[in-house]
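#struct-pred
JK: can someone run the complex with zinc ion? inputs below
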Amino acid sequence: MVVSYGNSGVVELPDGQRRLCKFRRSVGRPFCGDFVDLADADGESAVVTAVRPRANEFLRGGPQGRRQVIAANLDQALIVVAPVPEPSRDLVERYLVAVHSLGIRPLLVLNKAERLPGAALADDSPLLRLDQYEALGYPVLRTSCKGPPGIEPLPAVLHEQTSILVGQSGVGKSSLVNALLPDLDLQTNELSRVTGKGTHTTTTTIMYALPCGGRLVDSPGVWEYGLWEMTQQEIARGFPEFGPFPAQCRFNDCRHTGEPGCAVRAAVDSGEVRRWRYESYLRLLKP
Ligand code: GDP
Ligand code: ZN
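RT: done, structure tokens with the ligand placed:
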């Protein structure tokens, strides 16, 4: 699915053509990114006869903490940060925990990279720890929409993947989308032609084809990470370097907050787990 409205949407056929399709209530509502089976309805449109099982669902906390699906079957989420607005101490961990919990691969993008040298940052700013995130295994890409290095590092990681950009308002997500999609207007006009109505990019989640190969899901509004409640295990999964340690704790319901015989705490003391990451984990446990 390229885009999904209430009871209809646009699918991309294997040959790349786009086609209007209707949903049947019995089949359920497919989301942007879903793989579906189709049957012909009339010459113009098709009917969705089945929604294939999803690899993952990308959620947003809705009203009253309800979880809303925005898209399905994403490969990766690019967490965008910038020197302005300055990210708070635990912001990157919050995003990492949320993306890991959805079963999607997280990457970090430092946009407005040209403003980093000389930026006045707090001592515990995540932007001073980018090399440590890299050492933890997270790719870190430096971009700028206002000068070198431009978006040059992005095509290589976006190629053949389905990606979404997430991050605080003002970090430059729309600017990156525009830079990545020189034919953005063409693509939305084509969608409007297929649906026969206007496509409101400010209210609709749309999957675009990237010139570098791959797809980019653009969803309006800030992604309010962590609006849903997470269990201690979900939070711990956002810290992959805890690795084998939780299984070695004396108590199998150990929360790693100071319990006797905690192997995670021992790994922090021995330097195998970075203390600043562990402290962030403790803060995320009690919001
Ligand atoms: P969004 O809210 O994350 O979608 O952010 P926008 O794309 O709307 O960008 C917010 C502001 O940052 C705009 O004024 C952009 O012109 C500016 N901006 C975006 N990218 C860069 C960059 O790489 N460097 C600088 N200096 N400003 C940027
Ligand atoms: Zn423990």
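RT: quick notes.
Residues 232-285 form a domain with the Ribonucleotide Reductase Protein R1; domain 1 fold (CATH 1.10.40.50).
The pocket of zinc ion (ligand 2) is lined by residues 246, 249, 254, 256, 259, 262-264 (CB under 6 Å).
JK: thanks, will look after standup
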